[in-house]
Amino acid sequence: MPDDMARPLIRGRGEGRGSRCLEASMCDPDAPVIGIMGTGDFSRSLARRLVASGYQVVVGSRNPKCFIALFPEEVEVTSQMEAASQAELVFVAVFPEHHSTLVELKPALAGKTLIDVSNGIRINLDGPSNAELLADMFPESSVVKGFNTISAWTLQVGPRDGSRQVFLCSNSSSAKSSVTQLCRQMGFVPVDMGPLSSSLEIENLPLYLFPSWRVPVICTLGLFIIFYLYNFIHDVLHPFVTSGKNLFYKMPIEVVNVTLPSVALVMLSLVYLPGLLAACLQLWLGTKYKRFPDRLDRWLTRRKQLGLCSFLCATLHAVYSLCLPMRKSARFKLVNMAFKQVKEGVEDSWVDAEVWRMELYLSVGIMALGLLSLLAITSLPSVANTVNWREFSFIQSTLGYCALAMATLHTLLFGWNRAFDASQYHFYMPPTFALVLILPLIVLLGRLVLLLPCMSRELRKIRRGWEKTRHIRFTFPEVVSHV
């Protein structure tokens, strides 16, 4: 059965005659009257969704005649005082700096529920929130904070996945209950965030710009710049300085293609390194009830983002590698090599060792990318919700270490025996693959050590609640005051 929320909403005035409600749905005259203060984009989308959900809607405006054509025919657009008098529940959809213009409606709004949908223009850490100021302004009304994380577009096209959630908070349980029922009727999923003091957190939610992605992205970009400069000096600048070879054409493709897998392997190692450090810390302390250091704790919570950044670099590396034969420089090299072999009378240039190296190198790389793709897919909430915790842990941990092992083997096969070739050390700098192997090999060796029976048994006991000493005191993280 198709989702009704995915159907087109009611049409506006002038788009035909008769009912403007959803198909086979008429507005119920006995439905509660919902008021909306304000006539902006959010108000118009909200009015359409409410009418489509079977509610009677009245919109309060200071200039009703100017905005009546923007709303469906089922919506009554009138003065703010009349709308406040008719409605049983009122959405305050005006900018917070204009809340003071509603003070004259105090008598009409007394005893009613006000839903504050406003947001600030910047993150507010000190308070008070817009909803708390509105509650102080209307002490005889029950203020509920909600719908501020829902966009006008979501109201238009219908809720989908994560956008179904509506965070609510209020000091009045009855008011919160009525708004919760309203949310469900509109097709959203209400999330109770507690008292009105939580409104500051709810108001800040739409203002954050990928807060959990900031460090992983900076780390990825930083590693890319470092490895790119290293590869440029090693593979482009050294031949130019020592023998005058102009290899600057390698900068857009080849240097980038060598840099991307380096970043991907290091980032994937950073996904599993904090788990090893946490396990070692638990073994050393003999308990799981002592908090990790704050930096390690934040590192553990960023593993998903680090893994997805690694997957992005690995995918780009695969695309770049497929495009290598398409370059003019590759074609010229191939033709020149063929002419050179003909000139020198070489009949067969087949080298078994190189053929096997490349076959194994590509095969292992494809398997590593496939496992990384599986990890990335299962990290999506819609997919993760379909598996239980044991299955999710198996994929992200066991298969994740398999992906790291495959990626490490892929790099080892790329290096083959060139790590022992002195000519590969330009400016006494080791080749890039030798550097990037250090961290993943440490992580894999650490994992193998933890799999030893003596270590795994001890760690399992600790994580099941066993303590080496009973004098462990759980400590909360220190609160950093904002000056």
From TrEMBL:
One record GO biological process: iron ion transport
Keywords: Copper, Endosome, FAD, Flavoprotein, Ion transport, Iron, Iron transport, Membrane, Metal-binding, Oxidoreductase, Transmembrane, Transmembrane helix, Transport
Entry keyword Nucleus: no
Annotated transmembrane regions: 215-233, 263-285, 306-327, 360-380, 392-413, 433-454
Residues in Ferric oxidoreductase domain copies: 262-396
GO CC terms, sorted: endosome membrane; plasma membrane
Domain named Pyrroline-5-carboxylate reductase catalytic N-terminal: residues: 34-120
Record's bilayer topology term: Multi-pass membrane protein
Localization, UniProt: Endosome membrane
GO MF annotation, one: ferric-chelate reductase (NADPH) activity
Record's catalysed reaction(s): 2 Cu(+) + NADP(+) + H(+) = 2 Cu(2+) + NADPH; 2 Fe(2+) + NADP(+) + H(+) = 2 Fe(3+) + NADPH
Cofactor(s) for this UniProt protein: FAD; heme b
Family: Belongs to the STEAP family.
PANTHER family per record: DUDULIN-RELATED, METALLOREDUCTASE STEAP3
Record-given protein name: Metalloreductase STEAP3
Organism in which the protein naturally occurs: Takifugu flavidus (sansaifugu)
